[in-house]
């Protein structure tokens, strides 16, 4: 099946009805919505290879949702693997939000609500197949939904290569080689799942890794939620959620760590010749007046007073 939809007029909610029908027919019932007063263009090319359904999608920015109401209408027990080829996407399922950059892929379950947000024009390849085809241990799936896999290295690169091979093979739908590639995709995908489990445990929890990243980049005045989220392949909203759950907003954590580094340097006799403004600047706080105000609010004295107290004038 191949379908093309384009709209040159201002997009209103009901203009997504046709596209919604196309993608619901290609996958499972879905909702589609997008920005108003913008051109919308979309294309999907789909075919079956054995039990797998392969789709290549190119479209303008929009949002796709699988809602509880749609799930209650019937679920065929499918898993979807989405490989990002161009543009970024944010996938959300079971409270996990993951940013996909080109080369990344993720897995999600049609039996549970999910959303896909595309804030820019994109291209992606989506595989859909019965859940039982992916050999998983009990409870494994819960930890895999909306999780990012790197398709540029290791076993993930093999998954990416095989999925792209299926996409370009015109004869895959009716050939034995196409079926063998499908089997290989499932085998390598299961291996990628296995390979990802141990490194994730070794790295510790995500919040700890985010804090380490912040510590390493405190000197960068451009360090902020957007940069941190992008570099760690998660959404800004999920980043805020992680830090808020721990009691300290991410901006508050960055500010506190910068002030602590400044406090330490102000008390260091080897840095006595370094101006207060230079110490603030080296830790990402170039506005001297703002730094002085923050420092006094945190430690009760001005930076100069603190230095004088600890270095004897």
From TrEMBL:
One family from Pfam that matches here is AraC_binding_2
Protein name as catalogued: Helix-turn-helix domain-containing protein
The UniProt keyword set, sorted, is: DNA-binding, Transcription, Transcription regulation
Q: Name one GO molecular function term.
A: DNA-binding transcription factor activity
Its lineage opens with: Bacteria, Bacillati, Actinomycetota, Actinomycetes, Pseudonocardiales
Q: Would the keyword Translocase turn up in this protein's UniProt record? A: no
Q: PROSITE patterns per the record?
A: HTH_ARAC_FAMILY_2 (PS01124)
Species name:
Saccharopolyspora hirsuta
Q: Where is the HTH araC/xylS-type domain?
A: 208-309
Keyword DNA-binding in annotation: yes
Among Gene3D superfamilies, the record links this protein to:
Homeodomain-like
Q: Matching SMART domains, A to Z? A: HTH_ARAC
């Amino acid at each position: 099946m191949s379908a093309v939809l384009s709209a040159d007029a201002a997009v209103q909610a009901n203009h997504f009805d046709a596209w919604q029908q196309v993608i619901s027919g290609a996958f499972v019932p879905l909702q589609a919505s997008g920005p108003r007063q913008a051109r919308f263009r979309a294309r999907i090319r789909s075919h079956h290879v054995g039990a797998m359904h392969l789709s290549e999608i190119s479209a303008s920015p929009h949002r796709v949702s699988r809602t509880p109401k749609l799930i209650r209408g019937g679920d065929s027990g499918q898993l979807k693997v989405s490989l990002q080829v161009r543009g970024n996407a944010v996938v959300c399922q079971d409270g996990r939000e993951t940013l996909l950059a080109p080369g990344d892929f993720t897995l999600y379950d049609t039996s549970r609500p999910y959303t896909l947000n595309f804030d820019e024009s994109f291209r992606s390849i989506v595989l859909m197949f019965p859940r039982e085809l992916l050999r998983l241990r009990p409870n494994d799936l819960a930890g895999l939904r909306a999780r990012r896999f790197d398709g540029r290295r290791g076993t993930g690169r093999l998954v990416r290569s095989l999925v792209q091979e299926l996409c370009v093979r015109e004869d895959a739908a009716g050939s034995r080689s196409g079926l063998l590639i499908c089997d290989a995709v499932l085998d390598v995908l299961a291996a990628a799942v296995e390979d990802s489990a141990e490194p994730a445990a070794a790295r510790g929890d995500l919040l700890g890794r985010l804090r380490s990243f912040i510590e390493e980049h405190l000197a960068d005045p451009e360090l902020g939620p957007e940069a941190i989220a992008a570099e760690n392949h998660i959404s800004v909203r999920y980043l805020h959620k992680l830090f808020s759950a721990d009691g300290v907003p991410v901006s508050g954590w960055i500010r506190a760590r910068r002030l602590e580094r400044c406090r330490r340097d102000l008390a260091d006799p080897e840095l006595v010749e370094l101006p207060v403004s230079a110490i603030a600047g080296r830790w990402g706080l170039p506005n001297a007046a703002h730094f002085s105000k923050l420092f006094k609010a945190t430690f009760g004295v001005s930076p100069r007073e603190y230095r004088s107290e600890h270095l004897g004038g």
